[in-house]
């Protein structure tokens, strides 16, 4: 997801880049609770039927699902903020913040390593290189490239985004 708040001339502003979330945090927790409830019912049912040895595996399943859900939710709440000013470009991600001189900053579009991946988009300058929108799909990646072009940011190199099927 890309939200752009640009000035009227389009050369300065803020671009918020965040992953798409099809379900809220509350919905994900409710889904995890439903899976746990079904597993608990099945585990108790098997224990009553005499297969008590399956109970640790139901517990292990719940622990692994909880860890996976925690990791997923943590990743889904990540975002990047690109602030483009008249003289500086600031890219903030989590607790990391990189400030680039706008005159020296360029963006780079790298070809994907695998056929299913979107192209990689980087902002480089002054010895720094920052990946932008690693969680974006190909269409959103193109929108972000267009926004960066509209701000007057120059590109280092681009490749044709045409793929043969």
Structure description:
There is one protein chain. With 165 residues, the protein is of the alpha+beta class. Helices cover 36% and strands 27% of the residues. It has 3 helices and 9 strands. The chain has helices spanning 25-48, 55-76, 138-150, and strands spanning 2-6, 13-17, 80-84, 88-93, 96-101, 106-110, 120-125, 128-132, 154-155. Strands 1-2-3-4-5 form a 5-stranded antiparallel beta sheet, with helices on one face. The chain has a 4-stranded mixed beta sheet with strand order 8-7-6-9, covered by helices on one side. Strand 3 and strand 4 form a beta hairpin. Helix 1 packs antiparallel against helix 2. The chain is elongated. Residues 158-165 have low confidence and may be disordered.
* Derived structural class: alpha+beta
Percent of sequence in beta strands: 25-35%
Shape: elongated
Q: Which residues sit in consecutive blocks of at least 5 with pLDDT less than 50?
A: 158-165
Contiguous helical run count: 3
Proportion of residues in helical segments: 25-40%
Q: Based on DSSP secondary structure assignment, what is the total number of beta strands?
A: 9
**Alpha-carbon distance between the termini?**
27 Å
Strand order of the largest sheet: 1-2-3-4-5
| Biggest pleated sheet | 5 strands, antiparallel
Instruction: Determine the mean pLDDT.
Output: 83
